[in-house]
Amino acid sequence: MLSINITMIIPLLVAACLPFLSKKKLPFHIGWFVLAVPIVLFVIISSYIPSIASGSTYLHTIEWIPAYGIHFTTYLDGLSLIFGLLITGIGSLVILYSIYYLSSKESLHSFYLYLLLFMTAMLGVVFSENLFVLYVFWELTSISSFLLIAFWYYRKGSRNGAQKALLITVSGGFSMLTGFIMLYSMTASTSIRDIIASIDQYVDHPLFVPALVLILIGAFTKSAQFPFHIWLPDAMEAPTPVSAYLHSATMVKAGLYLVARFTPIFGGEDLWFWLVSGVGLITMFWGSFRAIRQTDLKALLAFSTVSQLGLIMSLLGLGSIAYHLGVNENSVPFTLATFAALFHLMNHSTFKGALFMIVGIVDHELGTRDIRRLGGLISLMPITFTVALIGSFSMAGLPPFNGFLSKEMFFTAVLNIHQLDLFSLHTWGVLFPIIAWIGSTLTFVYCMIFVFRTFTGPYQAEKLEHEAHEAPIGMLISPVLLAMLVISIFFFPNLLGDYLITPAMQSIFPTFTPSFDLRQPISPWHGWNMEIWMTIGVIILGTLLYRSFRRWKGVYSLFSERWGFNALYENLLEQLETRSSSLTKFYMTGYLRDYLVYIFLFLIIVTGGIFFFTDAFSFDPSGDAPIRAYEWIIVIVMVIAGISILFAKSRVTAILLNSVLGYMIAVLFVLFRAPDLALTQLVVETISTVLFLLCYYFLPEWKKEKTTNRTKITNILISISVGSLFILVALAVNSGTLFETISKYFENAYELAGGKNIVNVILGDFRAFDTMLEVVVLFIAGIGVYSLIQRKVPKEEEKLEDQ
Amino acid sequence: METLIIILAGILVMIATYLFLSKNLIRVILGSAIFSHAAHLLIITMGGLKTGSVPIVGEKPIAYTDALPQALILTSIVIGFAVTALFLVLAYRTYRKVGSDQLDGLRGVRDE
Fold it and tell me: How far, CA to CA in Å, does A372 sit from each of A355, A452, A607, A651?
């Protein structure tokens, strides 16, 4: 049997072949070739079901970066098995559907390339056992999802939707990575299983809570939880097979997977419970509330996905209480919640996939998916209607469909909670069943809108682009198969429960086995209890609300678009752009003087600040050489010459004053017993002066500078501060000798190098590299001067942009 | 003597900084020339002034002034000269091309 490592790479390998296939004219739709991949993978993964159900797990490691303990490790257990089956199973159906959905005029090879890339990425997320490998695949899902949303890149909406999805999910991904790094630095392990085994020692670690929150943010952004749900409705610009696959069945469940996978690590914390189930419930309510208002069928389904993901998330949160209670009978109702979460996760994938495909069919056959233009399709598209009915009734939680079972279990879980004297649940816990019940009622309402507004009522032929007729059989296969699954899960739920969910429960609650029975029998009928009355209440109130929708529609005007999270997001982006642009424009003026001011100010503040705060002032003139009168004169002459340069009216005066400075320095070098320096300084100063004079001949007479007094004062202040700082630092350095100079060594010049002039020996023998490079500098400058003068001034080219 | 030279160098730095902040290209170049003077003075001062004789090995063993800073300055003078020369020619070219030696006028191309 192929190891999982190799299995999950197969889509990537096939994707790599696709560009070559596209060059040739294939006699068949390229999708048929691609279809083989998920089917093969599904078969391979299914073959593990019996052994996983009997409690075994599979671990495969390929070394990647052993120095950091990062290995390409896959772990196949109950939880990853469920996701693997969903990804490959729904993937097969979606590819089959897409073969009929996309015409061969589209760039099919890139579509399937992105899709296969996504499939590998998603399989990587669920099978990876290493934190950082998991993150790599996590980002790959974001990227491939970005590519798929913008598949019709010539549409503005697609590009915006893709950008929004990428920005939100990648920011979440970064926060998750930070959380992972914190986990790694706490436990010094990158393996999720090792971390689960050792996490008890680190609960009081200061990084524990930040890691928890950051990882949850990653999961919430990916799974479109409140308030990060805004990207999902915009991602509906993608082709419908993509929406069905990524944005209902797989990618948005990656966050749920992450929460389920990390429940053994963070599960016992009350913060985890409140965040996961609280955010989940809010999302569930808000998603279902917003879904009712939508007129676009896909947007309606997007909000319903948000709502259902919230439901599953809140169940996972409730399930984590079991960790707090520990292994005993009291935690049974809460392990049931996790069981319900996994069960609903699978149910949701089946019915939501089918519903998206139905919307795709309606869109494809009629040219619109606006609910206001549709109606009366029941007799024209009977099969489509049947599937839509099954899907939406299951979503609403009605028998005999699988959604009914998971909704009952959801009610059971929220009803159990408010009796608990834990996490201050005795006060707030009562809100759980109430919000859950209201959310379910709203879910019922939009499900009715979805199916009855589309398929019943008057048929409006004039508003449609095409005549209504049943879809081709190939497009119907996948939704019909999913609908059949919806019904069969209702009648045989325990098959799913025993073979898939119970092993997954063991991976969420590893410490509970084997002393604890995690298996929960699901029965379609469980007697006249509170849950069933709640469902009846949902149906009655939901029907009333649906009937009277026109009358209470006004409620939505209270929630103006201007105050929504979308507006906040748009505003944030816009402000970010304008603010950063104006900030850059403010300080990047393009004037050399301004930049020099920044540099000098930085120097003054940082060097001066350090000097001031470390109290580095020291002044000790005791070691100074004596000063003679004519030395005073030289210095005073230099100061006067220097200052006069600033006030020189003509540039010739300025040059001559500059050469006065240069020659005076040469004289100082004589006094300081440096004959070579004095010689060089004299020659160089002479040549420089000649050069200056030569250049000035070609340059305009300098004008009086037009500067405001304020600039002048700033300039003066800056120059005085820089000069004083220079003096302070130099004095402080001069006041102390830390160690002997090494120059004594060079005084053996004659013995070591055979020269008597020490300076020359240093330049030519001891430190000849300096001299060589200095010669190179002179050489480069010479070439530069030559080419600058020789190069012809090109004629002004008229640029297109300037016209 | 050292203190005096340090203060002199500091004054030169002040002058150079003020010239740097000016709008005229030639004044900026002049500033850089004065700045290098200040640097050379500082380097030689740090080696100690007038502590011995000229660093040329003679017949009798005596104390010499520190030769290492002198070698460093010698290198620095040449490099400073090369850079100043290049700057000057660059200013000349800029003036030929743009027709101005005012730094405010040098605003780059519009479509940048």
Answer: 18, 12, 70, 82
B105–chain A Cβ distance below 8 A for any pair: no
CB A179 within 8 A of CB A215: yes
Q: How many angstroms separate the Cα of A538 from the Cα of each of A310, A442, A443?
A: 18, 9, 9
In order, the DSSP letters of A147-164 are HHHTSSTTSHHHHHHHHH
Taking an 8 Å cut-off on Cβ atoms, the answer to whether A747 and B103 are in contact is no
Q: Which residues of A touch B75 (CB under 8 A)?
A: 763, 770-771, 774
Considering CB atoms only, which of B33, B53, B74 is closest to A759? B74
| Nearest chain B residue to A641, by CA | B12
**Which tens digits make up the pLDDT trace of A625-656?**
788 888 889 999 999 999 998 888 888 888 89
A757 vs B contacts (CB less than 8 Å): 55-57
The string of DSSP codes covering B25-48 is: HHHHHHHHHHHHHHHHHHHHHHT-
Q: Do A781 and B7 touch (CB under 8 A)?
A: no
Mean pLDDT of chain A: 85
Interhelix angle for A254-266 vs A208-222, to 10°?
160
Place of tokens 């990227």: A143
Q: From CA A429, how far away is CA A544, in angstroms rounded? A: 28
Cβ pairs bridging A and B (under 8 Å): 268
- Residue-level pLDDT at A258: 92
| C-alpha to C-alpha distance for B106 and B103, rounded to whole angstroms | 5
In this structure, the dihedral spanned by the alpha carbons of residues A354, A358, A360 and A363, taken in order and rounded to 10 degrees, is -170
Phi-psi region of A407 (alpha: psi -120 to 50; beta: other; left: phi over 0): alpha
Q: What is the pLDDT of residues A482-528, one digit of tens each?
A: 999 888 888 888 888 888 888 888 888 877 766 666 666 776 666 67
What's the DSSP call for residue B21?
A: T
- Token couple for A363: 């869109």
Probe site for chain B from A600, A672, A706, A715 (most B CB atoms < 10 A): A672
Report the distance separating Cα A517 and Cα A336, nearest Å. 11
**Contacts with B47 from chain A: Cβ below 8 Å:** 741, 743
A176 is written with which tokens? 């998750």
Q: Do A242 and A273 meet the contact criterion of CB atoms below 8 Å apart? A: no
At position A21, the amino acid (one-letter code) is L
Instruction: Spell out which residues of chain A touch residue B9, defining contact as CB-CB under 8 Å.
Output: 726-727, 730
